[in-house]
Structures are given as C-alpha cells and as structure tokens.
C-alpha cells in the first residue's frame, strides 16, 4: 500500500547553513556524537562527494586538528568542554524605552515617483485593468 506523502531530501547540512551558519551543532539523540563546530560544512560536503576512504580520513583529521574545537578527543569519543563554548551576555532591558532604528542610507523617494507608484497600484483606474497592449490601441484612437 502506497502512502500519500512524498519525501523531500536535502543535502547534508543544507538547512543548518541557512539558519546557523557554517559551524553548528547537528541534531541527534543524547548518545549521538554531534561534532560541534569543528569543520565547515562546505569542506565536509566536498570531501564526502569524492566517496573515497581518503576523503573520510581527511574529514576525521580536519575535525581532530580544528581551531574551532569545543572540546577534545579522548580515544574515539569527543568530550565537550563547556568552558570553550561561547556564552552571550544579554543585558536586562526592563525600563528601557526602545526607539526605532532608521538607517542613514535610506533612499529618499521623490513625490513624482511616489505618485507614479500610487497610480500604478490604483486598481480603480481603467488603464490598470486593461492589458498594456490594448492601452496603446486605445491611446491611438
């Protein structure tokens, strides 16, 4: 019996790169080795695409010799050192009135262009309801 659901597969790390950047924690159960932030996902994907034993061994060597290691390898297991994980100090903003930020580089819109845009978006006008090819014919008459 077939199910009505289709499975959509993505490349390894595709969704993580969008949300968390190149270095991230992978999802997995509690005993799963998550390899936290040791090697960029682009490098891992390129080496995995070679599908050779040398590529796999090179990934393992890169992970062990990485600058961004949040722990150390003890034998074959990776032990996370919580003192190496970056911590963010978030200030308490109670009683602080936030003001909207306006960029200095915001372009100024002329009144003429603003009027043109309003006229183009006004669907009460007949010229916006008629296709452009027909409006040229109407103007010639």
Automatic annotation (TrEMBL):
**UniProt keywords, alphabetically:** Mitochondrion, Ribonucleoprotein, Ribosomal protein, Transit peptide
Q: Where in the cell is it found?
A: Mitochondrion
GO MF, any single term:
structural constituent of ribosome
Please give the InterPro entries that the UniProt record associates with this protein.
Answer: Ribosomal_mL41
Q: Give me any GO biological process, just one.
A: translation
Which superkingdom is the protein from? Eukaryota
Cross-referenced Pfam families: MRP-L27 (PF09809)
Q: Does the keyword Transcription apply?
A: no
The UniProt entry's GO CC annotations, sorted and at most eight, read:
mitochondrial large ribosomal subunit
Task: Please classify the protein's predominant subcellular localization into one broad category.
Answer: mitochondrion
Which family, according to the similarity comment?
Belongs to the mitochondrion-specific ribosomal protein mL41 family.
Return the protein name.
39S ribosomal protein L41, mitochondrial
Q: What is the species of this protein?
A: Paramecium octaurelia
